[in-house]
Write a structure and sequence with these properties.
GO terms for molecular function: DNA binding; zinc ion binding. The protein is mainly α. The protein contains four helices and no strands.
């Protein structure tokens, strides 16, 4: 072998490839140097915290909206949509379950007799 071997390319230290948390697994540059296990743990904590923050914000906004609506004095004037829906759906249901019109039987009579 030639004692003067020239290596081409790049070299990466083993410590550069390891997870930044020091768990012993290999990290990934896309995951900020963390391995898949540590990335999932960190990402799950971040996601859980974001969900809790969003829920708290939604509850606070709901309370503010209810307080603003109650102070405006419009609560009595608001119509109830359920009562108007029941009257419009009953005729449709009745129409679906009634027998077919008689003119239809006369039309089909020519085909069968």
């Amino acid at each position: 072998m030639n004692p003067q071997v020239v290596r081409r390319g790049f070299s990466v230290q083993q410590s550069d490839l390891m997870c930044k948390r020091g768990c012993g697994f290999y990290g990934n540059a896309v995951w900020q140097g963390l391995c898949s296990r540590c990335w999932r743990e960190e990402n799950q904590c971040t996601r859980t915290k974001q969900i809790e923050d969003d829920r708290a914000l939604a509850e606070r906004l709901q309370r503010e909206e209810e307080a603003a609506y109650a102070s405006s004095g419009r609560e009595e004037a608001r119509p109830r949509p359920e009562s108007s829906k029941t009257h419009s759906t009953v005729p449709i249901v009745k129409r679906l379950f009634t027998s077919a019109p008689k003119y239809r039987s006369k039309v089909w009579k020519h085909y069968y007799f």
